[in-house]
Protein backbone atom coordinates (compact mmCIF):
# COMPACT_ATOMS: atom_id res chain seq x y z
CA UNK A 1 0.00 0.00 0.00
CA UNK A 2 2.93 2.36 0.71
CA UNK A 3 4.09 2.04 -2.90
CA UNK A 4 0.64 2.88 -4.22
CA UNK A 5 0.34 5.97 -2.02
CA UNK A 6 3.82 7.15 -3.04
CA UNK A 7 2.98 6.55 -6.70
CA UNK A 8 -0.29 8.47 -6.52
CA UNK A 9 1.10 11.45 -4.59
CA UNK A 10 4.21 11.67 -6.80
CA UNK A 11 1.97 11.37 -9.83
CA UNK A 12 -0.18 14.23 -8.58
CA UNK A 13 2.91 16.44 -8.41
CA UNK A 14 3.64 15.48 -12.01
CA UNK A 15 0.05 16.23 -13.05
CA UNK A 16 0.26 19.69 -11.49
CA UNK A 17 3.54 20.32 -13.32
CA UNK A 18 2.05 19.14 -16.62
CA UNK A 19 -1.01 21.35 -16.13
CA UNK A 20 1.26 24.34 -15.50
CA UNK A 21 3.11 23.56 -18.72
CA UNK A 22 0.14 22.75 -20.97
CA UNK A 23 -2.77 24.84 -19.75
CA UNK A 24 -1.05 27.87 -18.26
CA UNK A 25 1.71 27.79 -20.90
CA UNK A 26 4.48 28.30 -18.33
CA UNK A 27 8.03 27.58 -19.38
CA UNK A 28 9.82 24.64 -17.75
CA UNK A 29 11.82 27.11 -15.65
CA UNK A 30 8.66 28.83 -14.41
CA UNK A 31 7.08 25.47 -13.66
CA UNK A 32 10.12 24.35 -11.67
CA UNK A 33 10.20 27.58 -9.69
CA UNK A 34 6.46 27.34 -9.00
CA UNK A 35 6.83 23.80 -7.64
CA UNK A 36 9.84 24.75 -5.48
CA UNK A 37 8.04 27.78 -4.07
CA UNK A 38 4.93 25.69 -3.43
CA UNK A 39 7.03 23.20 -1.47
CA UNK A 40 8.63 26.06 0.46
CA UNK A 41 5.28 27.59 1.35
CA UNK A 42 3.83 24.22 2.38
CA UNK A 43 6.97 23.61 4.45
CA UNK A 44 6.71 27.00 6.14
CA UNK A 45 3.08 26.29 7.01
CA UNK A 46 4.05 22.91 8.46
CA UNK A 47 2.08 20.96 5.86
CA UNK A 48 4.89 19.34 3.86
CA UNK A 49 6.38 17.14 6.60
CA UNK A 50 3.02 15.40 7.25
CA UNK A 51 2.78 14.85 3.50
CA UNK A 52 6.21 13.20 3.52
CA UNK A 53 5.16 11.04 6.47
CA UNK A 54 2.05 10.01 4.52
CA UNK A 55 3.49 9.55 1.03
CA UNK A 56 7.18 8.82 1.67
CA UNK A 57 9.17 9.05 -1.56
CA UNK A 58 6.07 10.29 -3.40
CA UNK A 59 6.54 13.59 -1.60
CA UNK A 60 10.26 13.60 -0.83
CA UNK A 61 11.54 12.96 -4.37
CA UNK A 62 9.73 15.67 -6.44
CA UNK A 63 11.33 19.09 -6.82
CA UNK A 64 8.85 20.58 -4.36
CA UNK A 65 10.71 18.83 -1.56
CA UNK A 66 13.72 21.01 -2.39
CA UNK A 67 11.71 24.07 -1.41
CA UNK A 68 10.65 22.33 1.77
CA UNK A 69 14.27 21.47 2.55
CA UNK A 70 15.31 25.09 2.08
CA UNK A 71 12.65 26.35 4.47
CA UNK A 72 13.11 23.63 7.09
CA UNK A 73 16.87 24.19 7.10
CA UNK A 74 16.47 27.95 7.38
CA UNK A 75 13.91 27.72 10.18
CA UNK A 76 15.88 25.12 12.10
CA UNK A 77 19.08 27.13 12.03
CA UNK A 78 17.23 30.37 12.75
CA UNK A 79 16.02 28.86 16.02
CA UNK A 80 19.59 27.94 16.97
CA UNK A 81 21.62 30.84 15.58
CA UNK A 82 19.20 33.69 14.96
CA UNK A 83 19.08 35.65 11.74
CA UNK A 84 22.45 34.39 10.49
CA UNK A 85 21.07 30.85 10.77
CA UNK A 86 18.51 31.61 8.08
CA UNK A 87 21.29 31.91 5.49
CA UNK A 88 23.54 29.14 6.79
CA UNK A 89 20.66 26.70 7.29
CA UNK A 90 19.68 26.85 3.64
CA UNK A 91 23.15 25.80 2.55
CA UNK A 92 23.67 23.25 5.29
CA UNK A 93 20.59 21.19 4.46
CA UNK A 94 20.83 21.30 0.67
CA UNK A 95 24.58 21.28 0.10
CA UNK A 96 24.93 17.51 -0.27
CA UNK A 97 22.30 17.28 -3.01
CA UNK A 98 23.58 20.29 -4.89
CA UNK A 99 27.19 19.10 -4.64
CA UNK A 100 26.21 15.64 -5.90
CA UNK A 101 24.38 17.17 -8.88
CA UNK A 102 27.41 19.27 -9.80
CA UNK A 103 29.88 16.40 -9.42
CA UNK A 104 27.78 13.85 -11.32
CA UNK A 105 27.01 16.41 -14.02
CA UNK A 106 30.73 17.08 -14.43
CA UNK A 107 31.53 13.35 -14.60
CA UNK A 108 28.77 12.83 -17.18
CA UNK A 109 30.20 15.67 -19.28
CA UNK A 110 33.59 13.94 -19.26
CA UNK A 111 32.15 10.57 -20.29
CA UNK A 112 29.60 11.66 -22.89
CA UNK A 113 30.01 14.09 -25.76
CA UNK A 114 27.36 16.81 -25.49
CA UNK A 115 25.65 17.95 -28.66
CA UNK A 116 25.48 21.68 -29.07
How would you describe what is shown here?
With 116 residues, the protein is mostly helical. It has one domain (2-111). Helix content is 84%, strand content 0%. The protein contains 6 helices and no strands. Helix 1 packs across helix 2 and helix 5 (64-81) runs antiparallel to helix 6 (83-111).
Q: Could you write a compact summary of the structure shown?
A:
InterPro entries: Spore_V_AE, SpoVA. This protein is mainly alpha-helical and 116 residues long.
How is this fold's topology laid out?
Layout: H1 2-22, H2 28-44, H3 48-55, H4 57-60, H5 64-81, H6 83-111
Name its key features.
mainly alpha, membrane, 116 residues, globular, SpoVA, single chain
Please bin the fraction of helical residues. Answer: over 70%
What average pLDDT do the residues reach? 92
The helix/strand order is HHHHHH
The number of helical segments is 6
- Global structural class: mainly alpha
Overall geometric form: globular
Assess the beta-strand content as a share of residues.
Answer: under 5%
Give a count of the beta strands, DSSP E runs of length 2 or more. 0
Please indicate the count of domains: 1
* C-alpha Rg (nearest Å): 16 Å
List segments where confidence is low: pLDDT < 50 over at least 5 consecutive residues.
none
N-to-C CA distance: 44 Å
Largest sheet: none
Amino acid sequence: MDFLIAFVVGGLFCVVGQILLDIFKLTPAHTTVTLVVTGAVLGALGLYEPLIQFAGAGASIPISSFGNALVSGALGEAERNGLVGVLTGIFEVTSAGISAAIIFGFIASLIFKPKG
